[in-house]
Backbone:
């Protein structure tokens, strides 16, 4: 249910004509007594619409996922509040999934509104909620102080910035208990890194966390001794940060259940923060994606150490980025012919980096191409195994080398069974 005051296109208008035709056919009764001709079209349409309406109203599952569009100040139009009660009445006794999403619009004087915190208690259906997602600015979340915190997993997103003026004061407010129940947290446009870490300490039961820092953020040095955060249940972490405190953030975290990590750095990143996170967490990481790095590994040993700490990894994505002067390529270059084999299987020397890897994605600028055949040899070592060994895990790979005028691509798909090599002009590269 869309609880906004903005007129929108009817969902039925977005359906392809082929699907609409099937719906109309299914809605026609077997004992059709009206002759199929243009003059009877209005009667047929009326009959179909009635049947469709009766079916929709009687299907309880259609009314168990509701979205409320919230106006400025954490208020919902009273008319839509009443409509929501009707939807809840049609939803039966099954599980509810509710989402409250900000519209960014001001309240209209001619419209009556209901405070957000009154919607759930007066519906008397809070016990049925299995998912509650709050996509609201921090200042509007304060409207929830009057709502009894339900005993269910919560999702919180703050798209307009998150910088509580006094975190200690917040800890004493009723809304703090919402944080203790959060399972998903998304914070956008973060201004202060230390405030962001404060928020994480309030959310011990997070399963998923996304942190997006603003480009104008104040990245003062974080005292790692003062911030040691153990999120014992966190499975997915995504950090989007344009300046240089990603290492500071990673050094403070212990994530024993981490399975997926995505870092978008848009600049320099050292391996120390990630190595520290993996060592102190001792987690079984399955997916790692690092995008926007200009330099990462200082040496082959650093990369080897990282690979050793991720024996269960199934997805690896490393995406490099060159600055205007192509600086940063002097550091350890994984694409050098002598280094690309760091990802290769070497059974005689008992080297099996990332033995469970299924998908490899690598893209980076480079002054020079790797040695002839080096990338193919690395990929084939992970594909062509001896008869006594189990089937290879590698299902797909894509390695892109961005040069000044050309782009070179190596790709492998298990269904095709061979490595393909392509070359493009920079302006013609489709990716």
Residues:
């Amino acid at each position: 249910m869309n609880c906004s005051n903005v007129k929108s296109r009817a969902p039925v208008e977005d359906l392809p004509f082929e699907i609409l035709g099937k719906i109309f056919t299914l809605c026609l009764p077997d004992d059709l007594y009206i002759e199929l001709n243009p003059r009877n079209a209005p009667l047929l349409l009326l009959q179909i619409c009635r049947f469709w309406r009766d079916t929709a109203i009687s299907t309880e599952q259609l009314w168990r996922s509701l979205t409320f569009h919230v106006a400025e100040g954490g208020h919902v139009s009273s008319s839509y509040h009443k409509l929501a009660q009707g939807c809840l009445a049609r939803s039966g006794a099954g599980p509810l999934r509710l989402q409250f999403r900000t519209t960014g619009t001001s309240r209209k004087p001619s419209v009556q509104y209901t405070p957000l915190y009154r919607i759930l208690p007066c519906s008397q259906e809070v016990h049925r909620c299995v998912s509650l997602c709050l996509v609201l600015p921090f200042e509007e979340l304060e409207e929830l102080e009057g709502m009894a915190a339900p005993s269910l997993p919560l999702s919180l997103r703050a798209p307009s910035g998150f910088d509580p003026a006094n975190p200690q004061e917040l800890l004493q407010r009723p809304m703090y208990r919402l944080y203790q129940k959060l399972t998903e947290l998304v914070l956008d446009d973060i201004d202060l890194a230390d405030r962001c870490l404060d928020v994480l300490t309030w959310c011990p039961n997070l399963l998923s966390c996304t942190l997006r820092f603003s480009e104008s953020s104040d990245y003062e040095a974080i005292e790692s001794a003062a911030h040691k955060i153990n999120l014992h249940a966190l499975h997915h972490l995504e950090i989007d940060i344009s300046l240089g405190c990603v290492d500071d953030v990673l050094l403070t975290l212990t994530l024993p259940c981490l399975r997926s990590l995505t870092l978008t750095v848009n600049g320099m990143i050292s391996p120390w923060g990630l190595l520290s996170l993996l060592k102190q967490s001792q987690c079984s990481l399955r997916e790692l994606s690092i995008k926007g790095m200009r330099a990462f590994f200082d040496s082959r040993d650093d990369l080897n150490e990282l690979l050793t700490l991720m024996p269960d990894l199934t997805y690896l994505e490393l995406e490099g980025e060159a600055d205007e002067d192509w600086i940063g390529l002097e550091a350890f270059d994984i694409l050098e012919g002598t280094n690309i084999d760091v990802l290769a299987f070497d059974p005689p020397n008992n080297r099996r980096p990332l033995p469970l890897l299924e998908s490899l994605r690598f893209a980076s600028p480079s002054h020079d191409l790797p040695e002839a055949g080096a990338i193919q040899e690395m990929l084939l070592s992970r594909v062509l195994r001896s008869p006594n060994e189990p089937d290879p895990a590698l299902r797909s790979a894509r390695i892109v080398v961005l040069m000044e005028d050309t782009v070179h691509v190596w790709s492998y798909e298990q269904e095709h069974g061979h490595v393909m090599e392509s070359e493009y002009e920079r302006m013609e590269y489709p990716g």
Q: What stands out?
A: The longest strand covers residues 182-192.
